[in-house]
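Appendix B. Raw example, untouched.
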Amino acid sequence: MVGESASHSAQLDSPILVAVDGSASSYHAAAWAAVEAALHGCPLHILTSMAVQTSFGPGMMLGEADIEWMRRDGQRILTEATRVARTAAPGEDPETTTEVTFELVIPTLIERSTQVRMLVVGSRGMGALQRGLLGSVSTATTHHAHCPVAVIHGSSAIDAVSATQPVLVGVDGTSNSVPAVELAFEEASRRKVGLVALHAWSDTTGLDVPIAGWDAAQQSAEAVLAENLAGSSERYPDVPIHRIVVADRPVRSLLDESANTQLVIVGSHGRGGFASMLLGSTSNALLHSVEAPMIIVRSQQAVRKHAR
C-alpha cells in the first residue's frame, strides 16, 4: 500500500514533456502543454533535439564550432517556445525547465515517456513535406510511448471559444478504452466543461445494419456505454455527460463530432485490435484527420506487453 502511494505521488509530481523543433506545429504544442501543465499543477519540460540524422548512420561528425552553433540555435528555439508557453498560460505559469539534447529525438522521447505524465508533440515537424502529413516524431511516439501522447494539429484550441467546448472520448466497450474514459473525465473536470462520450457499435454505416434486431442492438450498445461510464461519472459528478450511441464506423462518427470539441481522447487500440498492436486503426485514422488536439491513451496492460 505504501509503495502504491509513493508511486501515485511520483506520478503527480511528474512533468509534462513537450518536444519542439522550431516549427509552428511544435509551438502550438508548447502552448497547449503549458495550459495542460497549469491545469494539472505539474511542471513543464520543453525539449529540443539538435541531433543530425543521416542515411548512413546515427549522425555525422561535427566540429566544436558546429556544435556550439547548433546549441545556440537550440536555445533560440527553446526561448521562443518558453515565451509561447508563458503567453498561453498567463498568471498560471507552471514550473518550466528547458533542455537542448544532441540525442536523436524519437528514442529520447520514448525513453523519457516512462518518467513523465504526458508527451506533447506537434502533428508535423520541420521535416513534414505535405500539409496534413503526420510527422515522424508524432507517428513514432503515438505507436511506442509508454504514457499518454497528445498530438497538437493546426490549432492548440486554447482560445476563449474553444475553452468552452466539451471533451470528446471514444468508448468501444472493451477494457482498452477504460484509461481513455478516466482521463477524459479528469480533463473535462479540470476544464470545467462537459464530456461527450461516443460509442459506435457497428463497423458499417447505419444503412447497412439489418432492421431485424435493431432495437435490441441499440439498447445493448446504450447499456455498454452506460456501464463503461458509471465508475468515472461517480468520481466526477461535476462533469455533465452527453451520450451518443450510433450504428456507424467509429472513425467517421468521432471525426464528425470532433468539429465541436476542444479535445479528443481515444485508447491506443479498440475492440478489433490484437493485444500486441501498437496503434489501432481508429486512433491511427483519427490522428491523420482530426483538427482538434488529440490524446492517445495506452492501457497499462498494453504498455507491459509492449515493454517485453
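End of appendix B.
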